[in-house]
Amino acid sequence: MTELANNGRDCSSVTVNFTKLFINGQFLDSVSGKTFETIDPRTGEVITRISEGTKEDIDIAVKAARHAFDFGPWPRMPPSERAKIMMKWAELIDENVEELAALDTIDAGKLYHMCKAVDIPTASNTLRYYAGAADKIHGEVLKMSGQFHAYTLMEPIGVVGHIIPWNFPTTMFFLKVSPSLAAGCTMVLKPAEQTPLSALFYAHLAKLAGVPDGVLNVVPGFGPTAGAAISSHMDIDKVSFTGSTEVGREIMQAAAKSNLKQVSLELGGKSPLIIFDDADIDKAADLALLGILFNKGEVCVASSRVFVQEGIYNEFEKKLVDKAKAWVVGDPFDPKSQQGPQVDKNQFEKVLSYIEHGKRQGATLLTGGKTLGNKGYYIQPTIFSDVKEDMLIAQDEIFGPVMALKKFKTIEEAIKSANNTRYGLAAGIVTKNIDTANTMSRSIRAGTIWINCYFAFGDDVPFGGYKMSGFGKDSGLDALHKYLQVKSVVTPIYDSPWL
Question: Which residue in 53, 124, 201, 334 could disulfide with 93, CB within 3.0 to 4.6 Å?
């Protein structure tokens, strides 16, 4: 195992400019005056204190969003004008890429070079994608039987509550905000309490770009207070949530008990990666390792269950372990690092507890399983073999660098094992046989199937789950439609030569 890499940079070299709630175009202290600490997972030390939003602050933010929707210019301006403001916002993001990347690095433990090269540019491109869609929202003309003319209107749903997770603070911010802005909605967004820094900076840039006051409100806080207030608020028309299945269930209950607001949920996953005998073993091992170690395993679609056909299993296992032992875990500012720390102490301890479950339930620990360094939340890449499907490490979403490896014989066995989960977010298939690929892709109950690739996302590709992985899509035009509602308009026609 490679020793912990560290280039010596500390969080004091990153300036944090925005720590207050952003409501109605202004940065404000919370009503209660409370603040909470946001922690650098590289060291466990406090970065800064953030204003803590609670129910009272959510009420103020919703009131601002409601006024902006009912009376403000955003839903009423020509969509092409909305698009121009969104494009300007994207330009400002590009101009501040280094600072934004550094904020997500110190707040979430993400790799700085990946944030700078991928996360931040991808976010600005997502804004541009939906800016381009803003003036292409159209209804339909309908043929009715009888002397009536009918058409549909696509109207913004209203005030949206966004609740986003900590693993991809920037990506998730813009997967939610971009399509709802293009649709003409206003919104209140609660970033995860672990990672509020970049969300507040994006709010600042939105103001500079010309997003009208009240359209975008960002209220950091905790799930049981701020998140619950959004979910149960009588003046929010829709909630879009990405996070755990357990919290998703609570949000649905709150929505039902309040005003029956619409809900879309992107929840947990336990995604299978199925590797067949005809695969290139070296490439398959690289794909499997990337699938579980990218972003230190804190990915909802991480390939945490890897099934390998028996003909190549032994050779694959050896290559996989060798590659895992060479994987570089270290300071996320170090360009040599391939994996940073888990996001916080709670997640760190959760992952370690699952590693202990794996050992106790009889799985074979092939490599890893230990912490690295004497500070921060670093965990070695961990691979278990001899995993039975009823073990906790095979059934629960661990959200860390822990792989469950299993051998299979037939395609029927692979399909059964892949579907033996309460989740259905994604799956990967590695094979050179198109018939195998087609059979598997149609047989696995998951929202995204990757064939001979993994983590292949795109702004135009809908993303969402089956089963307890939730419902509703992010990305693509499906995401835009989730923030619109259809109105049917019918009028009589008289003395027309055509029906």
Answer: 124
Q: What are phi and psi of 353, to 5 degrees?
A: -65, -35
If the chain, 499 residues long, is cut into consecutive pieces of 10 residues, what is the mean pLDDT of each piece?
50 83 98 98 97 98 98 97 98 98 98 98 98 97 90 98 98 98 98 98 98 98 98 98 96 98 97 98 98 98 98 98 98 97 97 98 98 96 97 97 98 98 98 98 98 97 97 96 97 84
250 is catalytic: no
Q: Which residue is associated with the tokens 């969509």?
A: 79
Q: Which tokens belong to 41?
A: 């997972």
d(CA 478, CA 468): 20
Model pTM? 0.95
φ, ψ of residue 430 to 5 degrees: the values are: -120, 110
| Residue 211: other Cβ atoms inside 10 A | 23
Active-site residue among 115, 185, 193, 266? 266
Q: What's the CA gap between 359 and 154, in Å, rounded? A: 54
Q: Is 115 a catalytic residue?
A: no
Note the Cα 441 to chain centre separation in Å: 23
Determine which one of 52, 298, 300, 397 is catalytic. Answer: 300
Which is nearest to 290 in space by CA: 106, 41, 475, 111? 111
- Report the alpha-carbon distance of residue 114 to residue 119 in Å, rounded: 7
Give the whole-angstrom CA distance, residue 463 versus residue 476: 8
CA distance 118 to 297: 17
What would the two tokens of residue 477 be? Answer: 């035009």
Expressed in percent and rounded to 5, the helix, strand and coil fractions of the chain are 40, 25, 35
Calpha distance 467→15 (Å, rounded): 42
The CA distances from residue 341 to 172, 191, 296, 479, in Å, are: 20, 20, 7, 31
